[in-house]
Specification:
Elements: E1 7-10, H1 14-23, E2 30-33, H2 48-53, E3 63-64, E4 70-71, E5 101-103, E6 106-108, H3 115-128, E7 131-133, E8 150-151, H4 157-168, E9 178-179, H5 211-220, E10 225-228, E11 232-238, E12 245-251, E13 264-265, E14 267-270, H6 274-283, E15 288-290, H7 296-300, E16 312-317, E17 322-327, E18 335-337
Parallel strand pairs: 1-2, 1-14, 2-10, 7-8, 12-16, 13-17
Antiparallel strand pairs: 3-4, 5-6, 7-9, 11-12, 15-18, 16-17
Helix pairs in contact: 1-5
Length: 342
Amino acid sequence: MPDHYDVIVIGSGAGGGTLTHALAPTGKRILLLERGRWYPREHDNWNSQVVWGELRYRNAGLWVDQDGRQFNPKQHYYVGGNTKVYGAVLFRMRERDFGEVHHVDGVSPAWPLSYADFEPWYTKAEQLYSVHGERGADPLDPWASASYPWPAVSHEPRIEQLSHDLKGAGLRPFPLPLGVMLDEARPEASACIRCATCDGFACLVKGKADAQVVCVEPALRYPNVSMLTGARVTRLVTGPGGHTVEHVEVERHAVSASAVAPRRSTDAAPAATAVTRRAVFLRAGVGMIKMAISSPAARAAPHANPCPPRPLTVTVRARTRTAQVRLRRSVSHADWNTRSAA
């Protein structure tokens, strides 16, 4: 494993996996840090009793709710993140979602970017994740610059009848946009076999467009991309004022200190899930952090606000030794509000 990295990506799910896939062809040396390991590929992946009865694959441990009661969350720490078990439904956010939104519990402020800024990247993501759909069938669909790359998945006979009846009642049912590697015109060449175990299950035949299959595995074929699994980010050490990250601590068992040595890098991209990312920020006592995700979308963002250059260190703790990766810049762009209040 090399001892110098230009980019360090934290998390290999929909965000981190896609980011790593986009950066892999650039030739930059990239380190992908994933808290979990590879999802076990075994026959029980499709066993309902094992998946939903035993909850065998939920590996986030017990969490505590607001009343102090423990529960087992539907959270999965694996390469590919929660996309390993998602239902492959890939909606675009609506234009109004980027503006100020009033909720029962308060007001969500407007984004610094609009739907129009994201639209070209939505199109690229739909192509990457092989999304099947029918543009315009959803009456609330936002405008799009291109059609879905694949036609909508055909209905089963009972669903087809239900759709017909709903239309007869004046309603407008529409096919969900699904990210699956399905070719109904050539089923012999199709990875997806239209099984009955998709939502909530990992795909044994790699027919679901999850981040591991679509992004991480192809990215790792590049010699400049490396990944550490079982690498849990435990703490962000911030600079004066708590607005920039200067040091990231990572725990990993049985990794040698030579895996990552004290050298300098360029960017770090925290791409864990919303809950996990905020938990890390809260452990750091962070109020607001300005971060720049090293992606084409972020670089093209008109409101980017880079932080002043500061050294950033990623520390990987082994059983007996500590290894460090030093980053040349702190991350900028995309503000996250991380407050201790629920």
